[in-house]
Amino acid sequence: MSTATAAKRQVLTQRREARLQTPTDLTAAATKEISAMMNAILADVFALYLKTKNFHWHMSGPHFRDYHLLLDEQADQLYAMTDPIAERVRKIGGLTLKSIGNIAQLQRVSDNDADFVEPSDMLAELREDNKSLAERLREAHDVCEEHRDLPTASLIEVWIDETERRTWFLFESDRREDSSGH
């Protein structure tokens, strides 16, 4: 490649990237670290959303209606997190996820592609995934506080609470009855 061609390519790349450089008072290092952490959270949330919908669609058994509705409600809550996470990354000057492939590269939530999963196993798996998400959200919160990104930290606090609620509901829904019927 000629020097002129390389220079033109560099100018085009800089011009393209400059269009997405949102002004922020955070340092470049803070933007990079927070964006990376929040993009991984976003990938996890998308993966957990799809797994929750998968289990919602494939639920069966005597508690079908209750579990089906519970998982639909939880999936809606997860999906509602995605846009605020991505927009927060953009507000601080970062770039966010662009594709399903990007999600697959970053997600830490395991997929479950089994044709049949017992309802109690579905609830247990989602409970553990939500517990792990809460842990990762706490780690992200620490990074945000370290860099004084209070708005992101504040949003994360709400998401931790919602995630703990999902974990609690999944735990209680999967408890076995005792001899008294409770």
Describe this protein's structure.
The protein is mostly helical. It has a single domain (37-173), classed as Up-down Bundle (Ferritin). The chain has helices spanning 3-18, 28-57, 64-91, 100-106, 119-146, 150-173. α5 (119-146) runs antiparallel to α6. The termini are far apart.
Counting structural domains, the number is 1
The total beta strand count reads 0
Q: Output the CATH topology.
A: Ferritin
**Radius of gyration over C-alpha positions, nearest whole angstrom:** 20 Å
Which structural class do you get from the secondary structure elements?
mainly alpha
The CATH superfamily appears as Ferritin, core subunit, four-helix bundle
Tell me the helix content.
over 70%
Poorly predicted spans: none
CATH architecture designation: Up-down Bundle
| Largest sheet data | none
Q: With helices defined by DSSP (H or I, 4 residues minimum), what is the helix count?
A: 6
